[in-house]
User: What shape does this take?
Amino acid sequence: MANVIQFSDLIPENLSDSWFAVYRLPGEVYALYEPHHFQDVISYLILGKERALLLDTGMGIGNIRAVAERLTKLPITVVNSHSHFDHVGDNWRFEEVRLLNCPEKTALLEKGFRLKPGDPNLRREAFRLPDPLWFEPKDLQVRACKVRPTMEGEIFELGGRRLRVVAAPGHSEDGLMLAEDEKRLLFTGDTVYPGPLYAHRTDSRPELYRDTIRRLAGEFSEYTLYCSHNAPVWEGKALREIEKAFERILKEKRKKSRGSSCGPIEYHFDGFSIIA
Ligand SMILES: [Zn+2]
Assistant: This one.
């Protein structure tokens, strides 16, 4: 089984914030973690010599820009791993954000959106905070922002370090990862993390997800994965395990769905699950 590093294995930075907990990871990277919501979202601040790159802007409950600017004085390039609400909430605080070229999702972010009333992410019990909350969950919204598309192969030059865009569709059409080949780091977004992988959302495509994982397993199994939910660090060999898991469940699903259609099922594996 691939090794995981949990936040409980790490010591947080001494930086008090009502929403974010900050951890320094090997390779001049900060994990900006949101421990007070069950999604356990993680955004990453990656430091170069001339620029910093912020991968994702979180749920939009805390002020991620203020936290990032306490950690670096460098100008910040913002990239979204994809457009789901829990990764784009503070986009509006920045001049522009970069998203994989996908006109429909670009339009969505440029217009802004809200979750549907009653969404489980907005329920009181989704938050791990005592009463009273200092914000109103139902007011949560993704405010409009300016999006500049990026594409597979674009390099973000931070001065002394280069991050390469890897298209990773499947969980969502606009999924991207950032690879730092020199340090063998892969920032995985929502495509890969130790926990339930969502291949069942309306914008998910399980077969495409499997193809993406297969490609990633071929290229990045020797890398260290910095993931966007639950635990920050996972060993790259997890990609091989997820690849095998996808092959198995898609085969099973094909067998089961012959004749009758079935809803999403959670398939459990060692250290992760897949909902498809
Ligand atoms: Zn997502």
About this structure: The two ends are 22 Å apart (CA to CA). The chain has one domain: 4-275. The chain has a mean pLDDT of 96. The first helix runs from residue 64 to 71.
